[in-house]
Design a protein that fits this description.
Layout lengths: L20 H14 L4 H7 L6 H12 L10 H14 L3 H6 L6 H22 L4 H4 L9 H19 L12 H7 L16 H10 L4
The chain binds a DNA duplex (21 and 21 nucleotides) through α3 and α6.
Length: about 210
DNA sequence: AATAATAACAACCGCTGTGTC
DNA sequence: GGACACAGCGGTTGTTATTAT
């Protein structure tokens, strides 16, 4: 990392909140031409009124071409649970074993879906009580937790059918492959909701400049 | 149909580790 | 070795969408 005198972006006007399509385009174009890294200066050079941190996060979690979105498969769920049982909240470490998934996505998935069911299961089944402690104690038995959690996945499926009609515990590398390239994460259209395909198509049309 | 409650997700914040000067 | 800037991580919050009443 080189260390140059660097006027803080914070001094200037800093935009916060949801990214606009225009900002996304600027970021994509800039990275396509100059590559990623040195995020603070990137943000300035690209003319984005965002912090480098914000740019990095947006790129890593959302704009990167290899980011997979939506529909976490049953295999991925199991893997997440297994790795979480092993490592605890080491989201980035877990994410490395799930190609295309981001730590943020896995973290959100865990907190919003799995943890909820763990709590429910705990209330109805004392056997589950060891699991949540893995949040704080990553050394608990992985195999025990995982096998118990499998039941939860099944339960989860019943509630998640709207999100993934293909849920079934069977080898679904095929599912993953076929669904990935055409995955459209949009749930609707508004100023802030466009498909990555659109953005990348536009980027290509612009000739990357 | 309107409203409230809940779920899901995107983004921000604070902290820590690392490299450079 | 200390100061600084950047990168990365994990926790938390805010917003939007969906479901239930």
């Amino acid at each position: 990392m080189d260390k140059k005198p660097c006027n803080s972006v914070v001094d200037v006007e800093v935009r916060k909140g949801p990214w606009t399509m225009e900002e996304d385009m600027i970021l994509i174009n800039y990275i396509a031409n100059h590559g990623e890294g040195v995020w603070n200066s990137l943000a300035r050079s690209a003319g984005l009124k965002r912090t480098g941190k914000s740019c990095r996060l947006r790129w890593l979690n959302y704009l990167r071409p290899d980011v997979r979105r939506g529909n976490i498969t049953a295999e991925e769920q199991l893997l997440i649970m297994e790795l979480h049982a092993k490592w605890g909240n080491r989201w980035s470490k877990i994410a490395k074993h799930l190609p295309g998934r981001t730590d943020n996505e896995i973290k959100n998935f865990w907190r919003t879906r799995i943890q909820k069911h763990v709590k429910q299961a705990e209330n109805s089944n004392p056997l589950m009580q060891g699991y949540e402690h893995n949040d704080h104690n990553a050394n608990s038995s992985a195999s025990t937790s995982t096998s118990q959690m499998s039941g939860i996945v099944g339960h989860n499926q019943q509630h998640e059918h709207h999100a993934n009609d293909n849920y079934s515990i069977q080898p679904c590398a095929e599912n993953m492959e076929t669904s990935f390239p055409t995955t459209n994460f949009s749930t609707g259209w508004n100023d802030n909701n466009w498909s990555m395909e659109d953005l990348w198509n536009m980027q290509l049309l612009n000739g990357g400049e």
